[in-house]
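Researcher: Quick test of sequence recovery. Tokens follow.
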């Protein structure tokens, strides 16, 4: 099932179940997706592919995590809880992220594949990781692992 169809099905289920918070979050996702589709129209794309939808969802999670940190500093537990609930709904549409061991193994394999020897080769390694594991790998955490592995 394509992500767009999954959003629609989940929205219907949330509405029927009376889950107002989930309904609101899925509507927010669908509105953001519509904005992304509209922004892609000048390139001749009417509906962005699932890879770009995944990137959009990861961006939404990232911005909410930043908001959680700010709300926690501002002593607003009500807003922290709301943002964390939205993160949980959004992450439900993303593929399961790699754990630390799998990420370390992927980094080791990419370093070996590219023959990287120093931090100067980090771009090559990150390119291989992005090509193979873009959907399931947190590139920020992977970048830190690559830098540590290459002695940065």
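Model:
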């Amino acid at each position: 099932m394509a992500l767009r169809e999954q959003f629609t099905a989940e929205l219907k289920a949330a509405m029927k179940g009376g889950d107002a918070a989930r309904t609101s979050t899925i509507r927010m996702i669908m509105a953001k997706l519509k904005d992304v589709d509209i922004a892609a129209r000048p390139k001749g794309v009417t509906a962005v592919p699932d890879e770009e939808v995944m990137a959009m969802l990861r961006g939404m999670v990232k911005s909410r995590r930043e908001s959680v940190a700010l709300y926690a500093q501002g002593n607003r537990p009500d807003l922290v809880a709301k943002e964390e609930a939205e993160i949980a709904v959004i992450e439900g549409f993303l593929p399961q992220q790699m754990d630390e061991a799998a990420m370390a193994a992927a980094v080791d394999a990419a370093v070996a594949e590219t023959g990287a020897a120093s931090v100067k080769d980090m771009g090559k390694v990150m390119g291989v990781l992005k090509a193979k594991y873009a959907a399931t790998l947190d590139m920020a955490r992977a970048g830190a692992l690559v830098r540590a592995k290459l002695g940065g």
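The CA atoms of residues 13 and 128 lie 39 Å apart.
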